[in-house]
Specification:
This protein is an all-alpha fold. The protein is built from 15 helices and no strands. The radius of gyration is 30 Å and the shape is rod-shaped.
């Protein structure tokens, strides 16, 4: 007869087993309960360093209840009772049998400093993971009026966590995380393709505007064809050759951009519908690139911190390398928005007049730019 599972059996199967740090915390707490003077040898952790509320409350109680006389502590449980009563103010589920069990599971009370260092390392990993998660969440939060500034603020907060961990666990040269970083997110906002098309068409119509957006790189555009066409435009302008849809199409063919099946007629049509200014669309593209870079950086660090096999040393090295990507695009954003003066470049030899500057013309471009 087949075995029939009781409901409670299935419930128990869904409870994951405790992580190694849980047992390490038990060993540390047991050592401190057995020999309270070992607290003098413990550094680098606080109650917040523990993975459960019960352990945090118990450590806080051990740290605050006056220590007993060693001889008296060996004879009775008075101090343990006080610790339990104090800890239960924050964690009602704690019991006297659990405290005695902690004492029993501690193999060597003299190893308390080593156990504390392990708890500190695991807490560092959780802190880094939380900071990376906040960065990713901020990227996707559309309620912020100034998304770039908010995201960069979270990136700075993440970098501060990394620096603090580095101070506690100085990184060793060349020790990288073993975890494979996740690939960049392939999806892009729906309006990205249209805005990039407007950027390319406007730059084709007014190539003099290309000189003002040297901070924009092909990799900032979301579609490979658009990135390739932007490289075509900047290359032709740098060579001071004529810029129009036909010359850009020819350059695209020379670079093999049409090998993916793009129709020449569609490319010509796309490049023939300018609107707004190159600077406006370029800044929009750079903002998307910055936010995408921040998201990818956050997910990379999340992946590193989510792998318990990575040491704090590895986490620091990997996180700093990931944060360097944000720093690079951030510098270009500051240049684009005026925080850093942009270099003045030579104009192309075949520049046409820029877009109209009358009030009516600006209003017409704004209407198209926000459609």
């Amino acid at each position: 007869m087949p075995h029939t599972h009781e409901p409670h059996e299935d419930d128990l199967d869904t409870v994951p087993p405790p992580q190694p740090v849980f047992h390490i915390e038990q060993a540390l707490l047991g050592a401190l309960l057995l020999e309270p003077h070992r607290l003098d040898d413990v550094s680098g952790i606080t109650a917040d360093s523990f993975s459960t509320a019960a352990h945090a409350a118990l450590y806080a109680a051990i740290s605050t209840v006056p220590r007993p006389d060693p001889a008296e502590h060996a004879k009775n449980t008075t101090w343990l009772d006080r610790v339990l009563a104090t800890a239960r103010e924050q964690a009602r589920g704690l019991t006297a049998p659990y405290l005695h069990a902690l004492v029993q599971v501690c193999p060597w009370p003299s190893h308390a400093p080593a156990y504390a260092r392990m708890v500190e390392a695991e807490h560092a990993r959780r802190r880094l993971q939380s900071a990376a998660e906040r960065l990713v969440h901020t990227v996707h939060d559309v309620t912020f009026p100034h998304p770039v500034q908010t995201v960069l603020g979270e990136a700075d907060a993440l970098a501060a966590v990394v620096d603090d961990i580095a101070n506690r666990f100085p990184p060793r040269a060349g020790v990288l995380p073993r975890t494979t970083a996740p690939p960049p997110t392939a999806s892009a906002p729906a309006e990205a393709a249209e805005e990039e098309q407007l950027l390319l068409a406007t730059a084709t119509a007014y190539p003099s505007g290309i000189e003002a957006v040297r901070w924009l790189l092909p990799g900032d555009l979301t579609l490979p064809l658009h990135a390739g066409l932007w490289q075509c435009l900047t290359t032709i302008a740098r060579r001071r050759e004529p810029v129009d849809p036909v010359t850009v199409l020819w350059e695209a063919q020379q670079r093999g951009l049409l090998d993916d099946g793009s129709e020449p007629g569609e490319v010509l049509h796309m490049l023939a519908e300018p609107a707004g200014s190159v600077e406006h669309w370029g800044e929009r593209a750079l903002q998307r690139s910055l936010l995408a870079t921040a998201e990818h950086t956050g997910r990379r660090i999340e992946a590193y911190a989510g792998d318990p096999a990575n040491t704090p040393f590895q986490l620091v090295v990997g996180a700093r390398r990931a944060l360097a990507d944000i720093a690079a695009v951030r510098a270009r954003w500051q240049q684009a928005t005026g925080a850093v003066p942009s270099p003045r470049l030579l104009p192309a030899s075949t520049t046409r007049a820029g877009p109209p500057t009358t009030t009516a013309a600006h209003a017409a471009r704004s209407t198209r730019a926000t459609r």
